[in-house]
Amino acid sequence: MNKLQHIYTQRNKRQGFTIVELLIVVVVIGILAAIVIVSYNGITQSANATAIADSFKKFEKAMRLYATSQSWGSWPIDNTIMGSSNPNVANLINSAPGFSNYMQSPPDVAGIDPSYWRYDNDGDTYNGCGTGGSGTNVFISSLPDTALATKVDEILDDGNTACGRLRYSGTALVFSLSNDGSF
User: Which of 14, 40, 144, 151 lies at a CB distance of 3.0 to 4.6 Å from 49, suitable for a disulfide?
Assistant: First the structure.
């Protein structure tokens, strides 16, 4: 074998990666992917919580404007708007005369069915902590995610889902517009 053939043979043997090198690369890529997935899930949940909180505030503002346009001095009892108890927001938009001027569509956020958003004012008052629905509220009737409810509470209230303006019962996320029906 001449010297040129020997150099060519040595060069061919050195090309490529060893199994150990490939395994290290795969492990590093796996660790980076895990970090990205965990970060993405946290960002997604924060975005969903912000969207829900924003939807509660938008509904509150739309309902205030609507009540003012109707010359009401307090939040309307839910039966006076729709003739039914706890109407969903989509029905309010479609059926309450003029409400669509202030809110064009029900909230469609975080994969929550828009029909789960409801308005509640039975004319009662709310005096204290707990997960009750007394007072005037807008609520999501089915939200099984406790962590998401807590994040929404941190944005709108005090981070305590059992007390305050935002309450969570394990399924219903209740945002209080008023404790006693007044604006």
Answer: 151
pLDDT tens digits in sequence order for the chain, 183 residues long: 566 565 555 555 667 888 999 999 999 999 999 888 877 777 888 999 999 999 999 999 999 999 889 898 888 888 777 777 888 899 889 888 899 999 999 999 988 999 999 998 887 777 667 656 678 899 999 988 899 999 999 999 988 898 888 999 888 999 998 876 677
